[in-house]
Structure formats: C-alpha cells, structure tokens
C-alpha cells in the first residue's frame, strides 16, 4: 500500500547499439540490465523485477546465450533485481535484446522530467564523456585488427574509458544517497544520449531555459587524456557523446547545502526562465545555444 509501479523498456540492437566484435557477451548482458535499472533510478524509484526478450541469430551457441545471461545475472545481483520471465525467438538478422524493468516508489514521489522551476540547480553525478572516448578506442582497435588480424589490441592504458563504454553502472547509489540526505529532486533523467540532449529534454518538459557552465562539467583524467590523443574536444564528448548513464537532476536552491560536499555530485548550472533559452556558458562567459547531437550509434 502507498506504493506506485514504474515501468521502462529498452531495446538493444546489434549493429546499432553494440558491436559484438568488441563487446564481450557477459559485459553486454550486464549493460542491458544496467541501462534499464538506470531508467528506473531516474524516477527515484527502486528497481524490483525485469523480463527479458531475446531474438537470437542462428550463429549463437547455447554457451554464448549462457554467457549473455551470466552478465544479466551479475547485474541483477548487483542491483537487487529479480529476472522473472521473458521470451526467446530466432532472428534472421543480428541479436536483439529487449528488457522491461519494473520498480516501486512511494505514492506521489516519482520524479518526472517536468517539475523544474527557474533558479533550480542543475546537478550531475559522476563524470561525463568517458563512454564516448571508450568507443573511439574500441573502434580504432577494431580497424587495426581488420587491417592486420595478427595485431593485438592495445587496451591496457584505456581501462577506465573502455569500461565506461562496455559495462556502465546504473547510479542507484546516488538515488539512495539523495534519499538519505533528504533531497527530493524536482526533475531527473539519466544521460544516455549526451548531456546536451538530456538538458534540453528537462527544459522542454519543465517549460524552462537553462545555463550550463562548461568549466564545471566533470571530466575524469583518463577521459581528458584519451580526448587529447584522439584530438577531440572533451567538452563536446561530455555534451554529445552519450552512454554515460549518469544522473542529471535539478534541486531547489534551498537544498544546495545538502549536496555541495558530496564527492560524486557536481553542480553544472541552473534553470532559468523559458525566454532565456538553453545555453552553454563558455569559460570566456559567452552564451552558446545548446544543441542535441545525440549519441551516434555504430
């Protein structure tokens, strides 16, 4: 009693969302569960159950399917979720994974995208851009292998960004910590398509503008190093790279003191009146309209 159910569904399609030439099946199984748990977390809900639909091409062995499910089981254990059913069918194309996750939240407490108010503080968990740089590394090593099948992939120095791409974590920990701090976000969304896209989603749903400050965007050192190597702007990777699965949320100014010392939450800007548009503020103080490039899949 006093609980509401939240439901989310995500599809992962081979050749669109993942490349099996560099995605280990156990990692893929974990990621498939994690991205759904992330959607439940983004409503400040607790994930409880999920069902899995698989469409398998003929080339998949029983052992391959077991490896995929082993990754799913690891994620279910990590997030306290029960896998309660699903369906399997054959595919004439690639592998397709469809997961529907259920969660519970106290009645009236689900956080939506539409509750933001001007002056609300814009916060993000973790760091951004790593998954996109991990994808660049994996794509480069794939091309090197195709050119010379005897070549060995050089991934040792890219562990952090490769892990961010292949095996992201859902930030349920942040949801629990916000509850413990007595902070109830006014809006929340997980970052699957890049920060810019998600900020625009929140502003559109809430009827606000926003100011995002580029100098405050959290970037990990391995992400900065990989960006320099690939000659990519790390700010653009954070804004448009996608697949970080961190949480973007807004809180009232009055709650700022509760989160300001949290080591894994960064204030990156604030909401504004609708007429002010959605802008990135550069280090030089210039306002540049935020545009959603979205995540470019394979």
Chain-wise SSE layout:
Layout: E1 3-13, H1 25-41, E2 46-56, H2 62-79, E3 82-90, E4 96-106, E5 121-125, H3 130-147, H4 159-166, H5 172-181, E6 187-190, H6 195-206, E7 209-213, H7 221-229, H8 234-240, E8 247-251, H9 256-259, E9 265-272, E10 278-281, E11 287-289
Parallel strand pairs: 2-3, 7-10
Antiparallel strand pairs: 1-4, 2-4, 5-8, 5-9, 6-8, 7-9, 10-11
Helix pairs in contact: 1-2, 3-4, 3-7
Overall description:
The chain has 298 residues and is of the alpha+beta class. It contains nine helices and eleven strands. 35% of the residues lie in helices and 26% in strands. The strands form two sheets. It has a seven-stranded mixed beta sheet with strand order 6-8-5-9-7-10-11, sandwiched between helices. Strands 1-4-2-3 form a four-stranded mixed beta sheet, covered by helices on one side. The longest helix has 18 residues, at 62-79.
The CATH superfamily name of the largest domain is PurM-like C-terminal domain
End-to-end separation in angstroms reads: 45 Å
State the secondary-structure class: alpha+beta
The CATH class designation of the largest domain is Alpha Beta
Name the poorly predicted regions.
Answer: none
């Amino acid at each position: 009693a006093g609980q509401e159910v939240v439901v989310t569904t995500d599809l992962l399609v081979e050749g669109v969302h993942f490349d099996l030439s560099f995605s280990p099946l156990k990692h893929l199984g974990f990621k498939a569960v994690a991205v759904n748990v992330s959607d439940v977390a983004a409503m400040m809900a607790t994930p409880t159950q999920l069902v899995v639909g698989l469409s398998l091409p003929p080339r998949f062995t029983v052992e391959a399917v077991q490896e995929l499910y082993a990754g799913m089981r690891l994620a279910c254990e990590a997030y306290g979720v029960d896998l309660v059913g699903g369906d399997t069918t054959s595919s004439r194309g690639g592998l397709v994974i469809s997961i529907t996750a259920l969660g519970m939240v106290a009645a009236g407490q689900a956080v939506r995208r539409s509750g933001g108010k001007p002056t609300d503080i814009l916060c993000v968990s973790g760091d951004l851009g790593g998954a996109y740089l991990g994808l660049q590394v994996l794509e480069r090593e794939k091309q090197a292998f195709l050119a010379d099948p005897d070549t060995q992939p050089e991934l040792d120095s890219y562990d952090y960004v490769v892990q961010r791409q292949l095996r992201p974590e859902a930030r349920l920990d942040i949801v629990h910590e916000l509850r413990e701090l007595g902070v109830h976000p006014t809006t929340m969304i997980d970052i699957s398509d890049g920060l810019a896209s998600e900020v625009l989603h929140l502003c559109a749903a809430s009827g606000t503008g926003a100011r995002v400050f580029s100098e405050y965007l959290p970037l990990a050192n391995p992400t900065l190093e990989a960006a320099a190597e690939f000659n990519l702007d790390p700010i653009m990777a954070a804004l448009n790279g996608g697949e970080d699965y961190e949480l973007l949320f807004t809180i009232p100014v009055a709650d700022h003191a509760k989160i300001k010392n949290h080591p894994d939450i960064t204030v990156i800007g604030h909401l504004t009146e609708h007429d002010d548009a959605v802008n990135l503020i550069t280090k030089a103080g210039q306002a540049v309209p935020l545009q959603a490039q979205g995540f470019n899949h394979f």
